[in-house]
Write a structure and sequence with these properties.
Layout: E1 5-11, H1 16-20, H2 33-45, E2 51-56, H3 60-72, E3 81-83, H4 100-110, H5 116-121, H6 126-136, H7 145-165, E4 169-175, H8 177-187, E5 202-208, E6 211-219, H9 221-232
Parallel strand pairs: 1-4, 2-3, 2-4
Antiparallel strand pairs: 1-5, 5-6
InterPro entries: His_Pase_superF_clade-1, His_PPase_superfam, Phosphoglycerate_Mutase
Protein name: Phosphoglycerate mutase
Site (Transition state stabilizer): 176
Length: 233
């Protein structure tokens, strides 16, 4: 009998761009020393979790995060690991790599809001956000909403379906803040945008018979557990 299929979806560790407040979609920077330390703690906190497989997006920060976690895992060297470009962060086009204030300054104006606070109070949709990014993108690189939806959903669902067909169990998946938040909204339409997922947080989804169920969101207890283990050694 198959075990339940559970995705442990992890937001990558804190990067250089995260630290200085730059928009990081398809652009990429490595984890900071502090970011690496937190992910080492996370790896220790997850070291006894029975992962059947591990995945990350193909962005460097996600791959670096996955490698650190697997390095700390007691069976990390034998857990099959691969990358999937579909679970990347959103692409912000010409706004990618700029300061966050540029993105969140122009998007509300395009959507006819006074500022970021006004926009978030009115709870815009992810489609509104995607359309506004396309309107602001002078390079024509940003993805249309339907393309983002198709790639993100198919990426995570294919990972879950593959594990379900192979006996179920736990899967480690390293992805990105907006992508994870967007995925959650596709499962539960009542969830607000930008849940504010912490770097290194774990969001658990259970997949059964073609349906995702949200088990937990933005869990940092594994980091705390790993930090305690590190201090006790």
């Amino acid at each position: 009998m198959n075990k339940p299929t559970t995705l442990y979806i992890i937001r990558h560790g804190k990067t250089m761009f995260n630290t200085i407040g730059r928009t990081q979609g398809w652009s990429d920077t490595p984890l900071t020393k502090e970011g690496e330390k937190i992910i080492h703690y996370l790896g220790l906190g997850l070291r006894d979790t029975d992962f059947k497989e591990a995945y990350s997006s193909d962005s460097g920060r996600a791959m670096q995060t996955a490698r650190i976690i697997l390095q700390e895992h007691q069976h990390g060297s034998t857990i099959p690991y691969s990358t999937d470009s579909r679970i990347r962060e959103w692409c912000f086009g010409s706004l990618d790599g700029g300061y966050d204030g540029e993105l969140w300054g122009v998007v509300p104006r395009i959507l006819a809001f006074k500022d970021y606070e006004d926009m978030m109070t009115n709870r815009i949709s992810y489609k509104d956000l995607a359309d506004a990014i396309i309107a602001a993108d002078t390079a024509n690189w940003a993805e249309p909403y339907e393309k983002i939806k198709e790639r993100v959903w198919s990426g995570f669902e294919d990972i879950a379906q593959h594990r379900e067909k192979n006996g179920g169990g736990n899967v480690m998946v390293v992805s990105h803040g907006l992508t994870i938040s967007f995925l959650l909204s596709l499962i539960d339409h009542s969830l607000p945008m930008q849940i504010g997922l912490e770097n290194g947080s774990v969001t658990k989804l259970v997949y059964e018979n073609g349906t995702f169920t949200i088990d937990s969101v933005n869990d940092t207890d594994y980091i705390a557990k790993g930090r305690a283990l590190s201090l006790s050694n």
